[in-house]
Amino acid sequence: MSNTFQVPSDHWRNRYLLMRHGHSQANQQGVIVSSPERGITAFGLSELGEQQLAQLVADWPWPVPTHVVHSDFLRTSQTAARVAARFELVPSVDIRLRERHFGELEGQGDDRYPGVWAMDAEDAEHTNRQVEALSAVAGRMRAVIEEWEQKVSGETIVLVSHGDPLQILLTSLANKPLSQHREQKALLPANIIQVGI
Fold first, then answer.
1. Can you tell me the distance from the alpha carbon of 71 to that of 77, in angstroms, rounded to the nearest whole number?
2. Residues 6+ apart with CB under 8 A from 81
3. CB-side exposure of 81: number of CA atoms within 13 Å?
4. Closest residue by Cα to residue 172 from 19, 8, 55
5. How many CA atoms lie less than 13 Å away from 168 in the CB half-sphere?
6. Per-residue model confidence (pLDDT) at position 197
7. What's phi and psi for 102, nearest 5 deg?
8. What is the distance between the alpha carbons of residues 141 and 147, in angstroms, rounded to a whole number?
9. CB 146 within 8 A of CB 16
10. What does the pLDDT look like over 14-48, one tens digit per residue?
11. What local confidence, expressed as pLDDT, does residue 1 receive?
12. Residue 2: its pLDDT value, please?
């Protein structure tokens, strides 16, 4: 995977390290955990996830971050805490970085994802089974970056989020149709991609 994602943009004021949380208990169990009611207090990092984070912070190959911002789900909070501790930063929560909500599929097997993605490819605005629409996910994720772009300059900001939201965000930043988000190479657990300066 390339370390830097080329985004069509006239100007970026900051550098963003888009990070997916480490391997989680939800990944381990093959279950969809997308609701705050379940994801904030449970389904944190797996033992593999803890190992991934320990290795990542020990061998950090990225620019030194100045801010660490994360979803309030346990798996992202724990991931952000490991990164922030490495650089003596205080992580901050932004609920706009939360997992995409999968509605009626909550708690079901992650083998249900491909069915949703197939519907995404047909209709970027669908909310079948009460799944959060792609445009809603892209809007809230982009709003985080837009807010930081207005607020500071020359910073390196780690944004710790989840697989689907990050893939949707990268598709949006590339000015591609959101219905094509599954064509964007997915971030694996504990992986980072850089955008911006």
1. 7
2. 91
3. 11
4. 8
5. 27
6. 81
7. -105, 20
8. 10
9. no
10. 999 999 999 999 999 999 999 999 999 999 999 99
11. 34
12. 39
For residue 119, give Cα distances in angstroms to 103, 133, 171, 182: 14, 10, 17, 11
| CA angle centred on 72, ends 100 and 103, rounded to 5° | 30
Let me know how many helices (H) and strands (E) the chain has, helices first: 7, 5
Q: Which one, of 3, 58, 46, lies nearest residue 21 by Cα?
A: 46
| Residues 19, 91: Cα–Cα separation, whole Å | 14
Partners of 70 in the beta sheet? Answer: 93, 160
Task: At 176, list the tokens.
Answer: 């591609």
Chain Cα centroid distance, residue 129: 22
- Answer yes or no: are the C-beta atoms of 167 and 182 closer than 8 Å: yes
CA gap 92, 113 in Å, rounded: 29
Residues in the chain, pLDDT under 50: 1-4
Amino acid letter, 103: G
Per-residue pLDDT, 6: 52
- Nearest Cα residue to 77 out of 99, 106, 110: 99
